[in-house]
Amino acid sequence: MNQCTPWKALFLGALVLGAAALCPRVSQAQFTVINITPVGDVALATSISGKQEAGYFRVSSGSITHACTWNTTAVLNDINPSGFSESYAEGVFGGRQVGYGRKTTYPDQHAMLWSGTSASAIDLHPTNLTGSRAYGISANQQVGYGSGTSTGNVSHALLWSGTAASVVDLNPSNFTTSVAYGVSNGMQVGFGSGQATGNANHGLLWQGTAASAVDLNKTGWATSEAYAISGGQIVGRGFPTGNTTGQHAILWNNNGGSAIDLQPTGFLTTVAYGVYGGRQAGAGQNNAGFWHALTWTGSATTFVDLHSVLPANFVQSWATGINTNGDLVGYAVDNGALNYAVVWHRNNPATLTFQNTTGGQLANWTLSGTTLTGSATVSPTPAAGWKAVAGGDFNNDGKPDLLFQNNTSGQLAVWYMNGTTLAGSATLMPTPAAGYQVVGVGDFNNDGYVDLLFQNNTSGQLAVWYMQGVNLLSAALIGTKPATGFTVRAVGDLNGDGYVDLLFQNSSTGQIAIWYLKGIAVSDSGLVNQTAVSGWTVRGVSDLNNDGTPELLFQNQTSGQLAAWYVNGIFYQSGALVSAVPNSGYTLAVAR
After folding, report:
1. Whole-number Å distance between alpha carbons of 128 and 113
2. How many whole angstroms from its chain centre is CA 513?
3. In whole angstroms, what is the distance from residue 234 CA to residue 396 CA?
4. Sheet holding 177-184, edge to edge
5. What is the pLDDT confidence band of residue 61, given thresholds at 50, 70 and 90?
6. Tens digit of pLDDT for each residue in 428-446?
7. Beta carbons within 8 Å of 28's beta carbon, 6+ residues apart
8. What is the CA radius of gyration of the chain?
9. What's the CA gap between 397 and 390, in Å, rounded?
10. How far apart are the first and last CA of the chain?
C-alpha cells in the first residue's frame, strides 16, 4: 500500500526554518497548551476523545514506534501488541483506539483495535489481504483500508464492526482505489479515484456499503479528500480548479451538500483533519514556509493560529483532532526537529443562564472559577409560560443556543443565540408525550448533534430524542429506571471518556448519584460520597477551573446563593461559594 496518514511523512522529516508570517493570534487565556510528551521521548498525537488522546511515540531504542494513549498528562500508556515490532494509534473514541501494527516489514501491516491496553488488541486484518490499516473509530464502527490480490493490489476502503470477520469492502464499483479515514453514526468518509474521476482523488461519503458511495467533489474543485465527519460537517482538503500551488482545507456542510474553502489569506496550503460542534482542526503552511496548527468555526475568515500560544522554541505545529469541549490535539516540532504531542485545552469560561421565575426574564453570568467576571441581560424576554431547560449548539455554528419547554403544552423551541442576542428561533416537532420534561441535552450517539433527554414526572422513566439540529430522527427509552425520588439534574461527560453521563439528586434526601453511560446503556454507577446540605439543589455542571472535569453547581432554594463542588468521580474534594448572589427570583436554568 502506498497510502499514508497525511501527517505521517512528517514524523521523521527534516525541517527548513525561516521567518514566521503574521496571523490572527489567540490569547493565552483562551487556550492552555499541555505538552503530553514524557521527557526524553518523541511523540505525535493523532486523535482525542473526552480526556484521552491517542498517537504514537518513538521508543528509547531509537527508530521503533509504538502506539500509545494519554490522559492529558505527560504519562503515556504503551499499547504495542505482543508479537508486533511496531504500531501506530490513529483514532480514539470512548476508551477504544484504532490503528495498525507491523509484524515484520512493510507491507505486512495489520489493522488493529484496542481497548486501552496492549493485551486488549484485536487484529482486524482480513485474511484475504496483504496489508491493512485502521484510521477512524466511532461507537461501534472502524474504518481504514487494505490491499491484496483480491483488490488488485491497490487500496480499498474498509469498514469493520469490531472483528476481522465483519469487514466490508467500501470501494465503489467505478473506482479503482479508495481509502476511508473518518466515521460517525453509520456514515464514513474518505476518498477514491478511478475512471469515474479521471483518476483524480475525489472525496467520498458512504453509509455502510460500496453501493452507497456519494462523490463529494464539487464544481470548482479539481480534487478532494475527506478525513473526518461529525454533525453533518465533513472536512478534508483539495485542489481548487486551476490552482497548482497547494491544496486548500475544505468544509462540506449538510453531509456534503456544499463545499467551503477554508484557506485564509497568507497561506500557501492548508488541510483540515478534525471536526466537532461547528469547529474544525487542521494546519496551514504560511507564506514563509512554516506549518501552523489552525482551528476554524466554519469559514476561512474565522481561522485562529494555534501556533501563537506555543513556547518560542516550537517552529511548526499541526492540529489533528478536536473533542466535544473544543480541545485540540496534535503535535509541535521544536528547533531541534523533534516532535512533541500537545493538547490545546480550550479555556471555555463558565456561562450561567438564569431565568426569573415570575417575569421570565433571562440573564447570563460569566465566571472565572467561582468569581463573577461579567453579567448581561439576554434579549428578548421569552413569552409567558416558556421555561429555559437546557443549552447546546443546535445549529453547529460554534455558539451555544437555548432550549425552552412550555409549562402547559410541553412544546419545545430553540433560540439560536449570538452571545446574549437572539439570532433566530425554531419550533421542535412533535410535542413530547404528556408528563415528559426535558432534563438535559447531550450527544448520546456521538454523531455531532445535540440530543434531548427527558424524564417522566411520575414514573421517573428516561427517554432520549436523537436529533439532527431541530429535527427528530428517532427516540429510545433508557432501559434502566432511576430509583424513586431521583431526578436528573445534570448531563455531561463526567469521567472524560467521551460519553455523556447523568447526574441525579434525590429530592428528599439530597443524595447525589452518577450514571456513567455508553450511549444509553449504563456501564457503571455510584453515589457521591457527600450528601448535599438541606435546601441546596444541583442546578447543573460546568468546568469552572478548566481542568477538563465539570464541577457541580448548587443553588440555595431560599437565598439563591450558588456553590460549587469539586469532585473526582464520585468523590467529593472541596466546595466553594460563588462570589455573587443572583437577584431575588432568578433561578439557575442552564450551566455550560
Report:
1. 19
2. 26
3. 12
4. 177-184, 187-193, 202-206, 214-215
5. low
6. 999 999 999 999 999 999 8
7. 309
8. 24
9. 17
10. 45
φ, ψ of residue 500 in degrees (nearest 5):
-75, 135
Nearest to 67 by CA among 127, 126, 5, 2: 5
Give the whole-angstrom CA distance, residue 403 versus residue 323: 22
Provide the whole-model pTM: 0.91
Cα–Cα distances in Å, from 516 out to 50, 445, 546? 13, 14, 21
- Largest Cα–Cα separation, the chain: 74
Residue 411 is placed in which grid cell?
412544546
CA–CA gap between residue 81 and residue 88 (Å, rounded): 10
**How many other C-beta atoms lie within 10 A of the C-beta of residue 476?**
15
- pLDDT above 90 for 487: yes
**Partners of 431 in the β-ladder:** none
pLDDT of residue 24: 54
Gap between the Cα atoms of 510 and 489, Å rounded = 11
* pLDDT score at 28: 56
User: Residue 26 pLDDT > 70, yes or no?
Assistant: no
Burial 433-457 (b: 16+ CB within 10 A, else e): eeebbbbbbbbbbbbbbbbbbbbbe
* 8 Å CB contact between 241 and 194: no
Residue 296, pLDDT > 60, answer: yes
